[in-house]
Amino acid sequence: MGKYENLAKEIVKNVGGKENIISLTHCITRLRFKLKDESRAKDDVLKNMDGVVTVMKSGGQYQVVIGNHVPDVYADVMPLIGLEEGAAGIEEKPSGNIFNRFIDIISGIFQPILGIMAACGMIKGLNALFVALHLYSDTCGGYLVLNAVGDGLFTFLPLFLGYTAAKKFNLKPMLGLVIGAIMCYPAIQGSALSAGNDVLYTLFSGTMFESAVYTDFFGIPLIAMDYTGTVIPVIFVVYFASKCEKFFNKIVPDLVKFFFVPMLTLLVAIPAGLLLIGPLATFASTIIAEGVMAVRNFSPMLAGAIVGLTWQILVIFGLHWGFIPVYINNIMTNGFDNVMMPFFACTFATSAVVLAIFFKTKNKQIKEMALPNFISGIFGVTEPAIYGILLPLKKPFIISCIVGGIGGGFYGAFNFRKFMMGGMGIFEFPAMIEPDGSMGNLIVAVVGVVITMVLAFAATMIFYREEDVKEIGGACGKTEINDGIDVENNQTEEGAAADGGKQEHSSILKQIDITSPIKGEVLKLESIKDDAFASGVLGKGAAILPQEGKVFAPADGVVSTLFPTLHALGLETDEGVELLIHIGLDTVQLEGEGFEALVKQGDRVQKGQLLVKFDIEFIKNKGFCMETPVIVANTDDFLDVVETVKEQVNPGENLLKVLK
After folding, report:
1. Rounded distance, CA 327 to CA 515, Å?
2. Count of CB atoms situated within 10 Å of the CB of 256
3. Which of 81, 220, 252, 330 is spaced 20 to 30 A from 202 at the CA atom?
4. pLDDT digits over 481-519, tens only?
5. Is there a catalytic annotation at residue 625?
6. What's the pLDDT at 91?
7. No. of H helices and E strands in the chain?
8. Any idea what the Cα angle at residue 481 is, between residues 476 and 486, rounded to 5°?
9. pTM over 0.70
10. One of 27, 346, 401, 476 is an active-site residue; which one?
């Protein structure tokens, strides 16, 4: 047996045992079982297992999605069920370190709801703005309805965090949702308990944790807490519940697991949560809020400058996710955030730097990129500008960070605050109106933006030089910047003579271009009808709806994998990009019919070389979807993978940009 022996045993056990297995095959990413009785398979147990991505049911198959190392798992499963082993070949990718996992947990919990939080907050902010402008009163029906739209998510935030935290901690998501709902239940909120009961006694009197007790749970004091709108308590309760569920899954007989496991989980987790975990987590929230305020109050200007100076660097490495809970917790606990908000200056520093480059550069490529990136930046989306222009040119990125620090220092000195979640870029302004309707804080926001943009624009105009472009972008020939756009660069006759007009082409972006292997319509990966590919867990990329049954090599490299059924192949490019091209969805079931390979595993191929032919009409007539994912399997090895904005591509035209 191999290194996945334990995982293999658990998979076989939870698909109903070897007696429930009719046959087993595998494709590039998943084990494909045919089972006698699919109801005997424990979907949730399998989905929550380390080493299993998810479970899918399609085409009469019970599919356990493993990832790139599926052949190794397959090889360890086969001896357990007494069947012959098939092909193998892709190595397992190393898992992330503890810090990366922490960032992944935080982002996994908060990222799914940030968009809707911003939307709701923007509505709430605009509602407050319109009242302040006397367009309508805060007693009219229109205000009440819009306020409900803006407030709904924040009032019942534990429900949403309960759901997302449950998914992250491998608890059944509906259990997480129920836990969030219980923590928002009106009768157990501190405000309700204090309204209907006399104080029995007070705990921690004279400290910042002073808590009134109005009732008890069979003799155990129930500390009066308001959990609606809170962040940290529900996450810890859900984490505890996930451990309870795993424990009860082990000891409860299979016959009654369906209802006994969730019942026992709630009976243990909820009292523990309300009596101990919730109060402790609330105290922790208070400590965090007080702690960061104490650090900030030591020198508000210095604290703001540090945030403004470093924020973009944190964003590049994804480390900003570690601070998002502090930002949200401050707003929910204190009613505002003035600790993280100096990062607001960075958005406009970046935008102004890009605008200055637009006016100063003579390079057509950069000019074409700069204006759209400026517009994107003032709306709060700065990544295109950072990755596309500032980082490759280096000096403009440094300017944006320094000016962001200056703007952050200004915001820190003037106690700049944000009072509600919502919006990005210029759409954040309504959230900066003070609760009483006064505009002093909003004026600080606007003045800070003006100062930041003027300084960033001026500094770029003074210190940015066009020769910076030549060093990075090359001085002759063609430089390929955006998808399918070739732009002639300026070149002196003397420079051309020096190398015979054969100077090396070099992109302004530190990128690896991956061309389209197939002619067809470009689809967003997340839109295709396969959850494993669409979720991005197998890698970033794009999908193509083929219009011609030919697969060409998208880059120079080696055919690392060619599946026996010819429906999928892997290519490792000379630049180290591991590509997976999966022709159609579930087409492994065709067992090679309709496919013809012109190469074999291990062959070296050149960009544009014909690799595989396939019969589109035959495959479609057999009832299979032709959506073809093209993904970078080792996405984690790179900064980002960006797909083309084109709706139609031909072989040889850019499909993906892999940023280093």
Report:
1. 41
2. 10
3. 330
4. 333 333 333 333 333 333 433 333 334 446 788 999 999
5. no
6. 33
7. 23, 23
8. 60
9. no
10. 27
Q: What are phi and psi of 498, to 5 degrees?
A: -60, -30
Distance CA 221, CA 187 (A): 16
Residue 336: name the closest of 409, 399, 417 by CA.
Answer: 417
DSSP 19-36: GGEEEEEE-SSEEEEEES
Considering only residues 377 and 321, tell me which one the structure prediction assigns the higher pLDDT.
377
Hey, what are 19's tokens?
A: 């007696």
Tell me the pLDDT band of 367, cut-offs 50, 70 and 90. Answer: confident
Angstrom distances, CA of residue 123 to CA of 55, 131, 142, 145, 426 = 38, 12, 12, 11, 14
Tell me the C-alpha distance between 448 and 22, whole Å: 68
In whole angstroms, what is the distance from residue 423 CA to residue 426 CA? 8
Nearest CA among 538, 591, 522, 528 for reference residue 28: 538
Calpha distance 474→495 (Å, rounded): 11
**Contacting residues for 654 by C-beta, under 8 A, at least 6 apart:** 480, 483, 484, 513, 514, 515, 516, 644
In angstroms, the Cα distances linking 581 to 337, 634, 647 are: 46, 13, 19
Comparing C-alpha atoms, which of 271, 282, 265 is closest to residue 228? Answer: 282
Q: Is the pLDDT of residue 576 over 60?
A: yes
DSSP string, 383-422: HHHIIIIIHHHSHHHHHHHHHHHHHHHHHHHTT--B-S--
Phi, psi at residue 228, to the nearest 5°?
-60, 135
Parallel, antiparallel or unpaired: strands 201-203 and 61-65: unpaired
CB-based contact 570:561 (threshold 8 Å): yes
Check the CA dihedral 595-600-602-607 and report its sign.
negative
- H or E element, residue 239: helix 232-251
Contact assessment for residue 574 and residue 555, using Cβ atoms and an 8 Å cutoff: yes
Catalytic residue among 26, 244, 582, 625: 582
Whether the Cβ atoms of residue 194 and residue 226 lie closer than 8 Å to each other = no
Closest CA to 171 of 281, 246, 250, 277: 246
How many residues are recorded in the chain? 660
Q: Does the active-site annotation cover 140? A: no
β-pair type (211-217, 220-223): antiparallel
As given in the structure block, the two tokens for residue 153 are 């998510």
Contact 30, 66 (CB under 8 A): yes
CB contact at 8 A, 403 and 456: yes
Other residues' Cβ atoms within 10 Å of the Cβ of residue 187: 7
* Cα–Cα dist 599/616, whole Å: 20
Task: State the distance between the two ends of the chain, measured CA to CA, in whole angstroms.
Answer: 38
Phi-psi region of 603 (alpha: psi -120 to 50; beta: other; left: phi over 0): beta
201 backbone dihedrals φ, ψ, rounded to 5°: -170, 170
In the block, which residue shows the tokens 């109106």?
433
Task: Determine the Cα–Cα distance for residues 505 and 86; give it in Å rounded to an integer.
Answer: 45
The string of pLDDT tens digits covering residues 609-651 is 999 999 999 999 988 999 999 999 988 888 788 888 888 999 9
Pairing of strands 486-488, 201-203: unpaired
Place of tokens 């479609």: 620
Are 631 and 580 within 8 A, CB to CB?
yes
For 126, residues 6+ apart whose C-beta sits below 8 A from its C-beta are 146, 430
Q: What is the DSSP letter of 594?
A: T
Q: d(Cα 22, Cα 1) in Å, to the nearest integer?
A: 22
